[in-house]
TrEMBL record:
This is RNA-binding protein. Belongs to the CvfB family. InterPro entries: CvfB_fam, CvfB_S1_st, CvfB_WH, NA-bd_OB-fold, S1_domain, WH-like_DNA-bd_sf. It comes from the Bacteria. GO terms for molecular function: nucleic acid binding. Residues 3-63, 68-130, 143-205 form the S1 motif domain.
Length: 283
């Protein structure tokens, strides 16, 4: 069965003056000549994206869209009219966002995170910035401390919302961010906790004692490779720590604290250096 707004593996069954005819065995689709690979023959299989054109006809393309039906994506508005906005999908086909599907009025030239879906009455691809209507809220297949992929969606009073693994939505707290993030950014993140209200808290830092053990070894090697001292300590700013190691100050202090307990380093307000014993071993 051919899926509109998605990739399909179809067979070339004929060639016309307009292009190649592709089929899944039940339905035929035109692949225009200017979108066809060179040196293809009848009987070959092609992996193509399928959509409805303005005339309501099924068309295939080898162009690669920024997103398919079922995806969340950060897209740019390239035109608008009284009924809605048109967003660039990266192919010779825009995706329309009706006014009713705009969480806030969209403006030409601006970009927004939207969800791509198939309109059941017309079989046309549409988009919506009302993301909460499309995320899964039950039977969440995630665990605390699990590594996930995040698409940053928008700023809130508390921080930033993010789409998790193209399925769920969660929150990154502003006071736990140690680098600038923007809507549309794709980041690696971790599930911090599941709240009693069903919401998901997120982190851009790995969580758990295993991470501290890994971080401890990394920091120890960095100190040794920096002539036994780094200019960061207990009172260093979170920004300075993040610039060098891309970790939070809390994670830095835990790892350095573990090294201190093992008597491998000496810690001061703005410096961490190898202990005398470690310095002698390293020399």
């Amino acid at each position: 069965m051919i899926e509109i707004g998605k990739y399909n593996d179809l067979e070339i069954t004929a060639k016309t003056q307009d292009g190649y005819i592709l089929s899944d065995g039940d339905r035929d689709i035109l692949l225009p000549l200017n979108h066809a690979p060179k040196d293809v023959s009848i009987g070959d299989s092609l992996f193509v994206f399928v959509f409805l054109n303005k005339e309501g006809r099924l068309v295939a393309t080898t162009q690669k869209p920024y997103a398919c039906v079922g995806d969340f994506a950060y897209l740019k508005v390239i035109d608008e009219n009284r009924d809605g906005a048109f967003m660039d999908l990266g192919i010779d086909k825009d995706v329309f966002v009706p006014n009713r599907e705009q969480k806030r009025k969209m403006t030409k030239g601006e970009s927004y995170v939207v969800y791509i879906y198939l309109d059941e009455s017309t079989n046309r691809m549409l988009a919506s910035s009302r993301l909460s209507a499309f995320v899964e809220e039950e039977d969440i297949e995630l665990e605390e401390k699990e590594e996930v992929s995040l698409l940053i969606t928008e700023a809130t009073d508390l921080g930033y919302n993010a789409i998790i693994n193209n399925k769920y939505i969660g929150l990154l707290y502003q006071n736990e961010l140690f680098s600038y993030i923007h809507p549309g950014d794709v980041r690696k993140g971790w599930v911090k906790r599941f709240r009693v209200d069903g919401k998901i808290d997120l982190s851009l830092q790995p969580l758990g004692y295993e991470h501290i053990l890994d971080l401890k070894g990394t920091l120890f090697e960095e100190i040794k490779n920096s002539n036994g001292v780094i200019p960061l300590g207990d009172k260093s700013s979170p920004d300075d720590i993040y610039k060098r190691f891309q970790i939070s100050k809390g994670a830095f202090k835990k790892a350095i604290g573990a090294l201190y307990k093992e008597r491998k380093v000496v810690v001061s307000d703005y410096e961490v250096r190898l202990s005398d014993a470690e310095a002698d071993t390293d020399s």
